[in-house]
Amino acid sequence: MKTSQRIVVIGGVACGPKAAARARRRDPSASITIIDEGSLVSYATCGLPYYVSGAVAKRSALLVRSVADFKNVASIDVLLQTRAEAIDRSAHRVHLVSAATGQTSTLEYDKLVIATGSGPVLPNIEGRQLGGIFSVKDVANADAILAWVTTAGVKKAVVVGAGLVGIEMAEVLMTRGLEVTVVEALGRLLPGALDEEISAILARQLGRKGLTLRLNERVLEFEGDEGRVRRVVTAGGTLDADIVIVAIGVRPNVALARAAGLSLGATGGIAVNEMLQTSDPDIYAGGDCVENTHLVSGAKVLAPMGSTANKHGRVIGTNVTGGRETFPGVLGTTVVKALDYHIGRTGLGEEAARAAGFDVVTALVPGSDRVTYYPGAHDILLKVIADARTGRLLGGQGMGRGDLVKRIDVLAAAITFGGTVDALANVDLGYAPPYNTPLDPLHSAANVVRNKMAGMAEGVTPAQVKAKLDAGEDFVLLDVRSQKEWGTWRLETPQVCLIPQDQLQQRLGELPKDKPIVTTCRAGARAYQAALALKGAGFRRVQFAEGSLIAWPYDCFGGERESI
Amino acid sequence: MKTSQRIVVIGGVACGPKAAARARRRDPSASITIIDEGSLVSYATCGLPYYVSGAVAKRSALLVRSVADFKNVASIDVLLQTRAEAIDRSAHRVHLVSAATGQTSTLEYDKLVIATGSGPVLPNIEGRQLGGIFSVKDVANADAILAWVTTAGVKKAVVVGAGLVGIEMAEVLMTRGLEVTVVEALGRLLPGALDEEISAILARQLGRKGLTLRLNERVLEFEGDEGRVRRVVTAGGTLDADIVIVAIGVRPNVALARAAGLSLGATGGIAVNEMLQTSDPDIYAGGDCVENTHLVSGAKVLAPMGSTANKHGRVIGTNVTGGRETFPGVLGTTVVKALDYHIGRTGLGEEAARAAGFDVVTALVPGSDRVTYYPGAHDILLKVIADARTGRLLGGQGMGRGDLVKRIDVLAAAITFGGTVDALANVDLGYAPPYNTPLDPLHSAANVVRNKMAGMAEGVTPAQVKAKLDAGEDFVLLDVRSQKEWGTWRLETPQVCLIPQDQLQQRLGELPKDKPIVTTCRAGARAYQAALALKGAGFRRVQFAEGSLIAWPYDCFGGERESI
Questions:
Q1: Which residues in chain B are contacts of A329 at CB distance < 8 A?
Q2: Which of A307, A414, A435 sits opposite B431 (nearest CB)?
Q3: B279 vs B226: CA distance, rounded Å
Q4: How far apart are the first and last CA of chain A?
Q5: Which of A50, B298, B399, B448 lies 20 to 30 Å from A183, alpha-carbon distance?
Q6: A419 has a chain B CB within 8 A of its CB
Q7: According to the CATH classification, is domain B6-117+251-319 in 3.50.50.60?
Q8: Which residue in B417, B428, B526 has the most chain A C-beta atoms within 10 A of its own C-beta, making it the best mutation to test that interface?
Q9: Which of A326, A371, A409, A428 to mutate to test the interface with B (most CBs of B within 10 A)?
C-alpha cells in the first residue's frame, strides 16, 4: 500500500493556505501541515489599511479561515507561532522552533512549499525605534496603528514612501481626519507604477483634496521625545509628526531558502520554474518570496500581490500532488483607490518599455467613463503604450474619478493574449449608457495610437508643451474651444490664442504659416481635428496637445480650472 | 488636377456621421454629404429610454452634433428631411425626395455609404394604431412617450417583449412610478441574450422589485376606446394598460439596398465584406442595416448596437478615402441595467454554443464583486462557457448587483484574442480590496471549468436539481452550511439534510453509500469541497450544486431567502 504523501507548507497567508487547500482537494489522503511564526493564519493582508480606516469595522472580517476550519473541514494541521529554522534538504526535514516555548522539533516532508512572503523595508536611520513609527505588516501591527491613530492628540501624520501602500495609508489617515504629508525620495507619486503624465495630474488632484506631497525628498532622521516620534527630518526640512508610516517597499523573505542553498534570482526573490519549483525539485515556492516572469518584457520581476500569491497557491497545490500546472507570469497590474480617485496600470510603462528595447508609441486620452448625459458620469485619463512597429499592446495606465479599473482589466486581458491596437479598437465591449460610451475610452485610445502610427496624428504631451513654454519657444498654442469655455479657464501664456473650432475655417488667415502650431481644447479630440484641418489648409508644423487642458497637471492658467 | 472625391452618406445617426467625420479627417478636400429623412442628425438613440425616465434631464444632451457643427467644423453638408428614394448604381447617383416639399433631386457620388439603421418590428395585430402604443425609435417618438407617461391617470404599463429595450423601458416606467407588466412570447427574460440559469434568477429578482413578468404569452390584440389603448389581450388573459411599449425587436432597414440590387444575407441584413463593402465596390454599408460575422461561431448575425455602428463608421470612413481597414466581427456583447441589477453577456450562450457544434463545458459561479469586508460589496452570478476539448472560451454571461460589466468586458477581450480557461485563470487582473477579490470571480469561474474538465468537479445546475426534485428522485441533497445559515433559509424538500461542513468528516456514517448525493451550500465552494471529501471517503455518486442556494431561482424553500 502506498504511504500517504507528506506535504509541509511554510507560511500561513495567501499562497500557503491556498496551496494546502488545493493539495487537499486533489489528494484526500495526503498529510498536510502549515507552519507560521505568527499567531494567525490565512488573514487578508490587503485589507489592513481599510481596517485602520474603519471601513472594515470588525477585525474578524479580515480572518479568512481559522485553525479549526483547516483541521475540521480539510484535515490540514496548522502550527502557529512556529518558526522554520532550517531545511535539511537531504533528509527532507524542516527544523522548527516554537516561539512560545523555544522547543525545537523536526517535520519530515515529501514535498515542501516555501511561502514566506515579504516584509517591509525599514530605513536604517536615526530614531527608527521611536514609538509611533509603523510599517504595515500584519494584523497585530494594524491593531497597533489603529490604537495609536485613535489616541487623543494624534493629528499630524507623515507617510514615508508614495508607493501603493503609502498612498493607501495616506487615504486612510486622511479619512481618519489627520493632516497627512507624504514624503517620497523619487520624483513622483507611485513612482514604480505610473508614468509622469498620469502621476503628475494625480499628485495635483490629491493635493487639491488636502494631501501634502513632498517629492524628491529623502528622510534623514526621526526625532522624538519620551520615546515617541515628534518630527521627521528630510533633506528639505523638518515636519511635525504624531505618527509615521514607513512604506518604502517590501523585500522577499528568503533567508530560509538561501540558507538551504536554493537558487535566488537577481531580483532577490527565490528562483522558480514555470511549475513554481525551486532549484530543489521537491521544494516549491510561491507568493511574495519568489520572482516572476514579466509577460511583456520577459524579465524576472518581483510582484508582491495577494492576487498573484493566490494563483501561485493553486499551481503549487496541483504540482505537489502529482499534477502539472504552470504559472505563466505577471503584468505588474496594480490598482489603487485614493480618495475619489481610481488609479491603475498594467504591462510596461512608457519608460520601462523603452528600457526593454521597444520602439514605443503612446496615446494620452481623457474620456468619460459613461455617456456624459447619464447621471454619475466621470472622466478618466488613459495612457496606452504600444509597439510602434507592430501595434502590439505593451501597457496601459490611468487615473480618474470614473471607472478606470475596468479599462485596466480589459487591457490586462488584451496584453496577456498578445493583442494589438488594431484588435483593441474593435473589441466588442458591452455598451449601454450606464456603463460606457459607444466607443469606449479604450477604443479611442487604440484609435489615437493607430492615427499616430499612420502619421495622421502628431501629438505632444503636457510635459512637452510645458517644456516649450518654459523655454519661451516661439510657437502658437491654438485653443479651439468655445469662447465660453475659454472664459472659464485657460492657459495664461503669451503663446496662447483662441479661435473656436467652428470659426477656424474662416479665420485661418489669422494664423502664421511660418510658426509651429500646437492645437489644444478641453480633452484633445477637437485639437486633433483642428490639427488635421490646419494641415489640410497647408500648415506644415502642426501638433495637437494630447489630453489637452483636462490632462494639464501644471499651474499657469487663469480662472477656476476643471479637473479630471 | 485631381477632382475632389464625392462621398454621400445615407443615414444621420451613429455609423453615418462617424463615417463622414472619419472621411473628412483623412481627406480634407472631399465633398461629403449626409442625408437623413428625419429632422435631427447625430443623436444618441441609446439614450432615449433614459430621456423618458428623466435621468437625462435635457433633451439637448442627446444631440451629439448639430447640422451647423458638421458644416462649420468639418465642412460636411447635412440634408435633413430628405429621403433617398433610389440608388442608380450605374450612374453613381442617388435620387432624393424632400419630405417637406416633395421636391425631387439627385446627388452624384464616387463612394456611397448606406447607414440606414434598423426599425422596430411592429406586431400585425388588431388595435395596433390606438393611441398610447409606442415603440422606441427616435427623439420625436421619445418625446411622445414622455408626454403620454406624464399625463394624469397613466398608471399601468404593458411592455411587449422582454428583450434589451423591453427591459430598459420596464425599468424606466417603474422609476416613473408606473405599474409595469412585461409580456414575452418566449419562455424567458432576455431570451436572445441569457441562458436559463441567469435569466430565471434575474426574473425572480425583478419580480421581487415589483415587475410583473408574463412569459410564454403571445399578445393577441390591443383593445381601447376613444382612440386610445385600454387593454392588452394575451393568450393568458387581459391586462389593463394605459400605455403600451412594443419592443419585440428591430429589423434592418434594407429596402433601399434591396431595390438597388445589392446582395442581402440570410439574416436579412445587407451583406458586406470585411472592409464593409457591399456587393457594389463603390457602395459601403454599416451599422444596424448590415450583417456581421460572429467571432466565435463564424456565422453571420445581426448586431444592432450603437457601439458596433460607431466602429463600422470609422472603418468605412477610412475605406471610402482610399484606406484599407477591416472590421473583424462581433461577439454579440450586451449589457443592460435593470433596477439595481447589472446584466451582461458576450460570445455564445450555452445553447448557441451547442447549436454551433461545440462540445461544451460550463461553470455557474456566484462571487462577490469585491472582498466582502470592503463596504459596498455585492454578489454577482457568472456563467462561463468553454470548449470541452480545448478549454477555449466561447462565451460568458451573468447578473447581479455587483460590478458584472467589468467581468463581461474582460471576457470579451479574452474571447476576442482566443483565450482559454487556463490562461484566463492566471490573467493578472488588478487587485485591491475596493475592486475585487484576490482571485476574481472570473478566475474562480475559469478554475471551476478546469476542475470539471479534469474530472475533479462534477456539477449540477439549479435546473437539473429542480428536475430531480420535481421527479421525486431518491437522492440526498446534502446542505453543508452552518446550523445558523440553515436556520435562515433552506430548500424544503424531503431529500434535504444538513451536515455542516466542519462536522462532515465525523458524520460520514449518516450518509447512505448507495444513493446519489448532491452537495449544496450558499454559493458552491463548500459544496464542491464537500463533494471531494465524500469522493475521497469512498462515496461514488456525488455531484455539487453549481451556484448552490444563492443561484437558486425557484421557490420551495423556507425562511427569508438571501438574494444574489
A1: 428
A2: A307
A3: 49
A4: 68
A5: A50
A6: yes
A7: yes
A8: B428
A9: A428
Cβ–Cβ < 8 Å for A73, A48 = no
The residue-averaged pLDDT of A91-101 equals 96
Helix ranges (DSSP H) in B189-300 = 196-208, 255-259
pLDDT over 70 at A114, yes or no: yes
Report domain B340-453's class.
alpha beta
- CATH 3.50.50.60 describes domain A6-43+64-117+251-319: yes
pLDDT of B559 higher than 90: no
Taking the CB of residue B455, how many other CB atoms lie within 10 A of it?
7
Looking at the complex, does the CB of residue A409 fall below 8 Å from at least one CB of chain B? yes
Residues A519 and B406: their CA atoms lie apart, in Å, by 34
Q: What residues in B contact A332, CB-CB < 8 Å?
A: 428
- Inter-residue contact B539 to B355 (CB < 8 Å): no
- In this prediction, residue A268 carries a pLDDT of 98
| Distance in angstroms between the alpha carbons of the first and the last residue of chain B | 67
Angle subtended by helix axes B404-416 and B441-453, to nearest 10: 50
Using a CB–CB cutoff of 8 Å, tell me whether B307 touches chain A: yes
Superfamily of domain B133-248: FAD/NAD(P)-binding domain (3.50.50.60)
Is A534 an 8 Å CB contact of chain B? no
d(CA B216, CA B163): 13
DSSP string, A12-59: -STHHHHHHHHHHHH-TT-EEEEE-SSS--SB-GGGHHHHHHTSS--G
Question: Would you kindly state where each structural domain of chain A is located, as residue ranges?
Answer: 6-43+64-117+251-319, 133-248, 340-453, 459-559
Contact (CB<8Å) A344/B427 = no
CB spacing of B417 vs A438 below 8 angstroms: no
> pLDDT of B20-41, one tens digit each?
999 999 999 999 999 999 999 9
The amino acid sitting at B237 is G
Distance CA A430, CA B395 (A): 13
Distances (CA, A) of A66 to A56, A80, A287: 19, 11, 20
According to the 3-state scheme, what is the secondary structure of A81-111? CEEEEEEECCCCEEEEEECCCCCEEEEECCE
| Angle, alpha carbons B474-B476-B482 (nearest 5°) | 155
> Would residue A497 show up in a list of annotated catalytic residues for this protein?
no
Write out residues 347-366 of A within 8 Å (CB-CB) of B.
none
Q: Which residue of B has its CA nearest to A318?
A: B451
Cβ of A47 within 8 Å of Cβ of B371? The answer is yes
| Distance (Å, whole) CA A479 – CA A8 | 66
Instruction: Summarize the confidence of residues B272-292 as an average pLDDT.
Output: 98
Same fold, B6-117+251-319 and B340-453: yes
pLDDT at A1: 45
Q: Which of B303, B350, B341 is nearest to B195 (CA)?
A: B350
Tell me the per-residue pLDDT of B69-121, one tens digit each, with 9 for 90 and over: 999 999 999 999 999 999 999 999 999 999 989 999 999 999 999 999 999 99
B53 touches chain A (CB under 8 A): no
State whether B429 and A412 contact (CB < 8 Å).
Answer: yes
pTM higher than 0.80, yes or no? Answer: yes
Q: Is the ipTM value over 0.90, yes or no? A: yes
How far apart CA A324 and CA A326 sit, in angstroms, is 7
CATH number of the domain located at residue range(s) B459-559 in this protein: 3.40.250.10
| pLDDT tens column, A307-351 | 999 999 999 999 999 999 999 999 999 999 999 999 999 999 999
Instruction: Report pLDDT for A369.
Output: 97
Closest C-alpha among B190, B194, B231 to residue B213 = B190
